[in-house]
Amino acid sequence: MLLLVILAGAGVLYLFYYYGRDLPDYKQLAVYEPPTVTRVQAGDGRLLAEYATENRVYVPIQAMPRRVVNAFLSAEDKNFYSHPGIDVVSVGRAIITNLANFGRDLRPVGASTITQQVAKNFLLTNELSIQRKIKEAILAFRIEHAFTKDRILDLYLNEIYLGWGSYGVAAAALNYFNKSMDELTLGEAAFLDDIGCIPAAFEHDTEDFLGGRAADSLCLHHLD
For 177-193, how does the pLDDT look when each residue is reduced to its tens digit (9 = 90+)? Predict the structure, then answer.
């Protein structure tokens, strides 16, 4: 048994060494400034035009209401403030669940932490492969070592794509509910997180989910 543990540990170390070479420079995240919307206004304050490659309204993490932040943490990464970049417990739970669901035509359960999602969104691609997941894990460890938790969360909540051209939670709040983040209800915040899981699916039929009543009925189980 001890020999198996040693061999497994050696295998993990080799994978980290092999795939850890020539990875993108994660230190660039320290100076990252997301592109935002440029607005042209008339002298009386009327909005004349907006120009942007991505519809985004940047809001620093310190200015985000805690209920909105907590809604995303509760659904995406409950152990965000305690794990080192990878949530080993969640990975084990996901493996067991996916094995139990094998052959049942159910969507696989994921276990990516918010830090891993930052690594993928900023530094890697959406390629579905074991190699990318290993690189993602290595970068997550490095990012956690280099940045504070709040900086990582700031990057995530201002970068996540939430459908209909909305990048970041603040832009999505305006796009879907015509509200600032401070005005979002708990249900609306949880609803936006659900869009983040499968944004393309929500872009097909806006009438089914635009509006507070639909939002209030969704995802509250995430907040237990």
Answer: 999 999 999 888 888 88
Q: What is the CATH number of domain 59-223?
A: 1.10.3810.10
Q: Which residues contact 9 (CB under 8 A, 6 or more apart)?
A: none
Pull the structure tokens for residue 141: 């460890």
Are residues 87 and 77 in contact, defined by beta-carbon separation less than 8 angstroms? yes
Dist CA 8 CA 52 (whole Å): 49
For the beta carbon of residue 176, count every other beta carbon within 10 angstroms: 25
* Predicted model pTM: 0.75
Q: Which residues pair with 167 in a beta bridge?
A: 56, 161
**Among 15-24, 51-60, 93-102, whose mean pLDDT is lowest?**
51-60
Q: Of 82, 107, 108, 106, which is closest to residue 94 (Cα–Cα)? A: 108
Give the pairing of strands 166-167 and 38-41.
unpaired
